[in-house]
Design goal:
Length: 196
């Protein structure tokens, strides 16, 4: 009888474990948690045609990149990739996808300059800017880091250091993926098609 003293606590422990597992399955949410639920969201900035909000593209997938037109290398490379992705979509898919280029350098990037810049890469990319405060707010929403970096070799004496990510917003307006620069066109294309 003394040897069975451990039996009662063990049975209680096993019972509690089973109840916990059953409750976990029973009360688990039907939709898995979203990986970027604390990032992204709607915003409104200026384009050459007037105000543009992310919500204007409801039921479309949107590729968003933060950069600036005086960028010597990274921004052109990312926009070339975005342009290739858009070109590799079928005509019906392309109708459902937009690209947004958000300037982090509103002091130099006028609406006209941004428009000419993005049109070079693809006509479905829209250039956006705003006040310093507006840009800062949108950058915070997407966890984008940027800062002015003095550079005497630059025409205006500075460059902009910034995060190098492309943000894929799904048809529901929520951030679906953060795409690293290491991904090639086919991988980005696959990510876009997943949200269409």
């Amino acid at each position: 009888m003394k040897d069975a003293v451990w039996l009662k606590p063990a049975l209680i422990g096993v019972t509690a474990l089973i109840v916990g597992l059953v409750a976990g399955v029973w009360f688990s949410p039907t939709e898995p948690p979203r990986p970027y639920s604390n990032m992204g969201g709607d915003f409104t900035l200026s384009s050459v045609s007037g105000p543009v909000s992310l919500s204007d593209f409801e039921d479309k997938a949107v590729l968003v990149f933060f950069g600036y037109t005086h960028c010597p290398d990274v921004c052109p490379t990312e926009l070339v990739r975005m342009g290739h992705v858009l070109n590799n979509l079928t005509a019906s898919e392309r109708e459902q996808v937009r690209g947004l280029f958000v300037s982090i350098d509103p002091a130099r990037d006028t609406l006209q300059r941004i428009t000419e810049y993005v049109n070079f890469f693809h006509p479905s990319i829209i250039g956006l800017t705003g006040t310093n405060e507006q840009i800062h707010q949108v950058a915070q929403q997407y966890f984008v880091l940027y800062q002015k970096s003095e550079d005497s070799a630059s025409d205006s004496g500075y460059l902009m250091d910034h995060s190098i990510k492309t943000y894929l917003v799904g048809r529901d307006g929520r951030l679906a993926a953060v795409l690293a620069r290491e991904l090639d066109v086919s991988e980005v294309l696959e990510a876009v098609r997943r949200v269409l």
